[in-house]
From TrEMBL:
Limits of the DUF6630 domain: 74-202
InterPro entries: DUF6630
Pfam families: DUF6630 (PF20335)
Naturally occurring in which organism (per UniProt): Nocardia terrae
Protein name: DUF6630 domain-containing protein
Length: 218
């Protein structure tokens, strides 16, 4: 199977894995494009991740119907034929939003496995957040934590001070050369990672609802 760049190519490339589905509403395709752009932004040294995310929504749905592991389907020599086998499945119960959701799950799982993202409950202890960030491959060495103890205590006393805590966290990471970003989890949890400051003007940071710089730029 020829690998094509799903971010830069035209809609014909996107129709290829999805031509067994009703393409009447393209909102899910726009979201999938955005999520793949996020993958390229957060994991620029992992080009195969974009291709994986291009296929994982349909493969995940196929796996659910066949009760198999999606990782087994990814080993198939011809992913196009594997996805087109979905034509034998009753598709009326599949909503287009599921494609975006499956792509988001694939993105979060992959970035966690690559050590480029940390997840924590929204009520997580600030020290748990710090520990998770310091373990990331993209953690900016030399980031100052002198501000941390006072801000952490404020955060624990009143959760409404959380915005201030994360504003300081993002400010100090930026001073060390990295932008703190939050990625949507569609759950009561947070997913945080870093990108180099030179990528802070990436279009996806302005256009996607699935990622935002912390604090917001501009």
């Amino acid at each position: 199977m020829a690998v094509q760049d799903p971010v830069d190519s035209d809609d014909a490339v996107w129709r290829q894995p999805w031509d067994v589905f009703d393409a009447g509403n393209s909102d899910w395709k726009s979201r999938c494009r955005g999520l793949i752009s996020i993958a390229a932004l957060v994991a620029p040294d992992e080009p195969s991740l974009a291709e994986y995310l291009r296929w994982v929504p349909a493969l995940s749905l196929r796996a659910q119907f066949d009760e198999v592991d999606v990782r087994d389907l990814l080993q198939d020599e011809d992913l196009e034929l594997t996805v087109l086998d979905l034509g034998a499945i009753e598709l009326d119960d599949i909503e287009p939003y599921q494609f975006g959701f499956e792509t988001l799950k694939g993105l979060l799982s992959a970035l966690l496995s690559l050590g480029l993202l940390m997840c924590a409950d929204w009520k997580a202890d600030p020290r748990e957040i710090r520990d998770g960030l310091e373990r990331l491959r993209s953690y900016p060495e030399g980031m100052s934590w002198e501000w941390f103890e006072a801000a952490a205590q404020d955060y624990e006393v009143a959760m409404e001070t959380g915005d201030r805590f994360f504003e300081l966290l993002g400010k100090h990471s930026r001073a060390a050369g990295a932008v703190l970003v939050g990625i949507n989890t569609e759950a009561d949890s947070m997913a945080l990672g870093f990108i180099p400051v030179e990528r802070a003007d990436a279009e996806v940071l302005r256009t996607s609802n699935d990622i935002e710089p912390i604090p917001k730029i501009g």
